[in-house]
Write a structure and sequence with these properties.
about 800 residues; RasGAP_dom; RasGAP_C; 9 strands; four-stranded antiparallel sheet; three-stranded antiparallel sheet; GTPase Activation - p120GAP, domain 1
Length: about 800
């Protein structure tokens, strides 16, 4: 009991004393050793991080493919053709999942690619590892690069390369560096692109977009779900809730209701203006009830939001703070209200609002595959979101919305609540405090940073850096120029993977570009040169501390000076040698990725040899003003005590990180499972379509191939331009009067390929030209809402009516 108490007191001294005594530091110095458990946990962390990043990337790919599938099935439903295309996409989808990414990673290990051991390839790999380390740790390069590109390109670049470079912030170090990049880029954007404070709201700033999409999605930790799911679910489950605030809507549903109940046509006009609708007592009563309902449910949302400030990810809050401070710096005359409205635009409108309007799209609620929200549910949520949006920006209902005047007082009260919420959200510790960044000296961290990146992304980044080299680093002695010079010109995908060159446009090239490599990042400029005296002194200090740690364990003494001056006994030397042998055995077992870049302490030295080395180092450090002999080097002992404390914190943090990564991974796996259920649902749907078509074999479009070729001769259709004009398919022909239309003949016949038609044009019996018309293209135009198109560059055609004609004549529907 006494021993335990003493140990507790000693540890308190170590933590709290300004100058902990040597005896106390000696007692806890063993905590700086890396145990087997340390290595095991680091290995688990690396494995989990790789899994999380691979999972995120494969889920993103699946999601994109499923969205495309949605569109294709939508086109199929409206025009039951192009089934072949949907089927081929479905096959691609089924093959696509996590397996693909891991296979690509494995494939790369077996080939002679970037990781092959030839000296030239090794140098190339190292050069990339140095380049990506510099990009990752120095945010100014990427911050400037983002604004050298057009916005559509930069968004794509951000989504793939940048989040990859920081492993989707899957650990503390990378989250810190990513936020540092966001901060630098946002300051750069406001400094160089924003001329008026409102532009942040009216424009679509790249960095803001990235920050929101990052905090709303990729990592599967959905803070928005915690904040909004309970209230969204409550609104969706309330089947009686019907929020209508448009007087004309209310009027029409009232008239419909009367007609349904009486079975007689209403005497009231069906089309009315908002004023006419409001003249009816019933409409006013219903509107009042609706407004009351709306206030009640909006209040539930508001209450859920304003107490959630601690649930909002640190990254969102930190960005809000940077946004507010940077704008205040650039526009010192702006009032706090103006600044807080812009913070509100980020925190409420961009981050939360879309998740309220479409909770199914943002994982706020779980829907079964194929399930969707009803029109009423969507309208209710949309009305609530509109109210909250007005409250967050302190905007009143005026003009066309004058009938909503009674809500204005409620809105200005709600704004005050939002205002306090936005202020509280901006009140966060700095990055350095939050992540304790300067704490981990090399004594503590085991792992070198590793990123998982595709060959295509490596090449893309390399190309962009070369294209914009001078814009991102104007100083000719900037280290990035040296690294780009080492790399030389941009290699091809094939050469990096170790394959033979492919012809341009070969589809395999794209697949090759997705091959992933893991790069273990390293700092080329770690080796201190003459120019880098400060770095030199830090390295020397670190090495000296390591030597001291080894020496004070084995030799007693109250102060460092006393230990260095006393001679080591033979017993102490023997004990020391044994410890060094144990260390050598453990080092031999250390996984490659965790070995320090270069051993900084020579363990072949004797105990006395290390003491001599400490002495000469201390002399140099004293000359550099880094240590003070007059207080018997107590500052160095204090530094070691700080390392011991930090090592403990680091271990605690690592445990927390493991738990967090496991949760993230579980979230991502359940999302993958959901996507797989959706894939099955789609496949089942397509199978049903195929079966239905099979039962209709007689029709031409059902069976591509030979039978189609045979029939195609019989089923070509001829029309005069006048007939097509009558049907509304043809709108006009340039430079030709309508009375001449009878002399123009169009012949439409199916070609060998499914869904492709040959269209021939003749004038006065003379063949002019032939073009191919793809049915899929027409559907896509229709899907995009394009009403008219040009044929032969002269004839203007109505797309919908042309589709109708083709369906009727060639597909029997």
């Amino acid at each position: 009991f006494i021993r335990a108490n003493k140990a507790r007191d000693d540890y308190k001294t170590l933590i709290n004393a300004d100058d902990p005594p040597m005896a106390v530091v000696r007692k806890f110095v063993h905590l700086l050793d890396h145990s087997d458990q340390d290595f095991q946990e680091e290995l688990d962390l690396m494995r989990l991080r790789e899994e999380v990043v691979t999972n995120i990337r494969s889920n993103q790919q699946l999601e994109n493919d499923l969205n495309l599938m949605d569109i294709k099935i939508g086109l199929l439903v409206t025009n039951k053709i192009t089934l072949q295309e949907v089927v081929s996409h479905s096959n691609k989808l089924t093959k696509k999942n996590k397996g693909e990414l891991s296979n690509l990673m494995m494939m790369n290990k077996q080939r002679g690619g970037l990781k092959a051991l030839s000296k030239e390839k090794r140098l190339k790999l190292e050069a990339y590892q140095y380049l990506f380390y510099l990009l990752q740790t120095n945010p100014t390069y990427l911050a400037k690069l983002i604004f050298q590109m057009p916005q559509n390109k930069s968004t794509k670049f951000m989504d793939s390369v940048i989040f990859t470079l920081y492993n989707y912030a899957s650990n503390q170090r990378e989250e810190y560096l990513l936020l540092k990049l966001f901060k630098t880029a946002l300051q750069e954007e406001i400094k160089s692109k924003v001329d008026q404070i409102q532009e942040i709201v009216t424009g679509n700033p790249t960095v803001i977009k990235m920050v929101v999409s990052f905090n709303r999605g990729a990592r599967g930790q959905n803070a928005l779900r915690q904040i909004l799911a309970p209230v969204v679910k409550e609104i969706m489950d309330d089947k009686t809730l019907n929020i209508k605030t448009d007087p004309v809507d209310i009027y029409k549903s009232w008239v419909n209701q009367m007609e349904t109940q009486t079975g007689e046509a209403s005497k009231l006009p069906y089309e009315v203006t908002p004023e006419q609708a409001m003249s009816h007592e019933e409409v006013r009563t219903r509107l009042e009830a609706s407004i009351k309902n709306m206030r009640t449910v909006t209040d539930k949302f508001l209450s859920a939001i304003i107490v959630s400030v601690d649930k909002i990810p640190y990254g969102m809050r930190f960005t809000s703070k940077v946004l507010k401070d940077t704008l205040h710096e650039k526009f010192p005359d702006a009032t706090e209200d103006e600044l807080l409205k812009i913070v509100g635009n980020l925190l409420y409108y961009r981050y939360m609002n879309p998740a309220i309007v479409a909770p199914d799209a943002f994982d706020i609620i779980d829907l079964s595959a194929g399930g969707q929200l009803t029109t009423d549910q969507r309208r209710n949520l949309g009305s609530i979101a509109k109210m909250l949006q007005h409250a967050a920006s302190n905007k009143m209902f005026l003009g066309d919305n004058a009938h909503l005047n009674p809500i204005n007082e409620y809105l200005s009260n709600s704004y005050q609540k939002f205002r306090r919420f936005f202020l509280a959200a901006c009140d966060v510790p700095s990055l350095e405090d939050k992540f304790n960044v300067d704490q981990y000296s090399d004594l503590v961290t085991l792992q070198k940073p590793v990123i998982y990146i595709s060959i295509g992304e490596v090449i893309n980044t390399h190309t962009l850096l070369l294209d914009h080299q001078d814009a991102i680093a104007s100083e000719h002695n900037d280290p990035i120029h040296e690294l780009l010079e080492d790399l030389g010109e941009v290699p091809t995908i094939e050469s990096l993977i170790g394959e033979n060159p492919l012809p341009p446009g070969d589809p395999n090239r794209e697949t090759m570009g997705k091959t992933e490599v893991s790069l273990t990042l390293a700092n080329k400029f770690d080796v201190p040169g003459e120019a880098n005296a400060e770095m030199d002194a830090r390295t020397l200090l670190l090495n000296t501390k390591r030597l001291i740690v080894d020496v004070i364990r084995f030799q007693p003494g109250e102060t460092l000076t006393e230990i260095l001056e006393g001679a080591a006994s033979p017993e102490q030397e023997v004990e020391y040698q044994r410890a060094m042998q144990r260390r050598a055995i453990r080092d031999a077992k250390t996984p490659e990725k965790m070995k320090q870049a270069k051993p900084v302490v020579d363990d072949s030295l004797t105990l006395q040899g290390k003491k001599d080395k400490i002495r000469s180092n201390l002399q140099r450090l004293a000359e550099l003003g880094k240590v003070h002999p007059e207080n018997r080097y107590q500052d160095l002992i204090n530094d070691i005590a700080k390392d011991i404390r930090n090592q403990r914190r680091y271990r605690q943090r690592r445990k927390a990180e493991l738990v967090k990564l496991q949760q993230t991974n579980a979230g991502l796996n359940s999302k993958t499972a959901f996507y797989n259920v959706q894939i099955d649902y789609y496949n089942q749907y397509i199978k049903t379509c195929m079966d239905n078509l099979a039962s209709n074999k007689g029709k031409l479009s059902k069976k591509p191939g030979d039978s189609k070729a045979k029939k195609s001769k019989q089923v070509s259709q001829k029309y005069t331009a006048a007939r097509l004009h009558e049907k509304g398919v043809l709108i006009e022909i340039e430079d030709l009067q309508t009375n001449q239309f009878k002399n123009v003949i169009f012949e439409i016949s199916p070609s060998e390929a499914v869904g492709v038609f040959d269209v021939k044009a003749k004038f006065m019996g003379v063949h002019l030209e032939t073009l191919q018309l793809e049915y899929q293209d027409l559907l896509q135009l229709q899907y995009e809402g394009v009403a008219v198109m040009k044929l032969f560059d002269r004839a203007t055609i109505n797309v919908n009516l042309l589709i109708f004609l083709l369906n009727k004549k060639f597909y029997g529907k």
